[in-house]
Write a structure and sequence with these properties.
homotetramer, 142 residues, five-stranded antiparallel beta sheet, two-stranded antiparallel ribbon, 40% strand
Chain lengths: 142, 142, 142, 142
């Protein structure tokens, strides 16, 4: 578990809500994606769009994602999202996201992502790579 | 576990893919939503848009969702999605989705949804209701 | 033409971009929608989610929208969007949006929207209503 | 004006609709994108995902898009979309889309797209290329 928690605040838009007047579920996974990029930028000091070039990777593809929906978020609600790496493994890691609406947790999300470069055997495919120690170290001391 | 499996076939669109050239993760949760509506229509013989009126509910809000990403899906890939209720409880149920690309499982999804009507105490809110026996019976005999 | 211009700054997200690495076109129309709500809140001092209740309308449905794409926006680009009502008519109005990336116009958008309430003859439908003078006056003096 | 009209039929999904219960405007531009790919595949006999490689281009980037919204489309509505190239120019072309709901036109869309390859001066950018005569000929005789 790393201690650093990044925060991001945003307002729910009309087009993110469904006919029940609440945020459509897939949008939360889009928010989690924002959260992970925000977290990595905050800790590493590298713009998300420069992350791949800086570390010689293709991206941070997801292998698992999940969400627990506790309370709905509605058009106009101000959301505060926290994001935190909960575990680093050799070449993958877990991120936990929590969305607060009106001060209480509305959604809990989790992602498992891979530190991935091009597969030398087939450059059209991605392949996991060991997480660089300087990356994990930065998270532990952030 | 109910035995009925609904199937839906579709092709991955350009706008569903991200700069890595693969389907952006949130889109899969949109696909799972399609799958659940498709399944309920196939079993109950009720158009998704008539489901709420037919059964006196507001909708089938999600309380939990998850996905395991095994292989990427790319622009132009033909996807076959299967959807199946894996458990009915008093007022909630689980749906399992599997997306096949080129004949192998690319993504496994799961949703937990609630059979929800208006909360009598506050009609602007939703409240779980017992699943009607005629609904669960239809799934068991479909 | 009203003089008030609202501004909104945001960063392009990974999930908003397509396999060409640029923002997928439909996302710009989502941004324009953000811009119109932001503009109305800035001028009227009413939260977007309270606009309908405050003025007894259902919403501001679009009757026309368009965009001219001059330069691409990419993952990580910081976008500055300006929004301005360019004409008020009896019950409709035009909004112009401009998205600036790195200081130059990348996209020009326009929307024509209707001030719409419930149709008395069929409450499931919307019907245009005259724009309240206090609304248009606020735009002219903002 | 070319004579070939491609057709595509689909059902409006829950997640494509907004709190007013109608399709959120940006989704129509996603539909138009589907329409153009469908049209090119029907006429050229080339899978959309193979189009770039087959013709040595990067894609068909939009320079202009617009929509006229005549009637709403709702969850469960069956939409029939027609797509047709209305003009070919040296390196760009116009596509007209029409969405029919319950047999009447609900939305009219138009796109102007460019036949684009990599810019030799800067491969990270796109540059228009002359439309190959075999492509425009195929549309005229389809």
């Amino acid at each position: 578990m790393t201690d650093f928690i990044s925060r991001r605040k945003f307002t729910i838009e009309w087009g993110q809500c469904d006919p029940a007047g609440i945020v459509f579920n897939s949008r939360f996974f889009e928010f989690f994606d924002w959260g992970t990029w925000t977290l990595f930028e905050a800790v590493l000091g590298v713009k998300p769009s420069d992350l791949a070039a800086t570390f010689g990777i293709v991206g941070l593809p997801l292998v698992d994602a999940g969400a627990h929906f506790i309370a709905p978020a509605r058009f106009g609600d101000v959301v505060e999202m926290t994001s935190q790496v909960t575990e680093f493994r050799r070449s993958s890691f877990d991120v936990a996201h929590r969305l607060f609406v009106h001060g209480t947790v509305a959604v809990e999300g989790r992602e498992t992502r891979v530190w991935a470069g091009r597969d030398p055997a087939d450059p059209s495919r991605m392949k996991s790579q060991p997480l660089p120690p300087e990356v994990t170290a930065r998270f532990r001391t952030a």
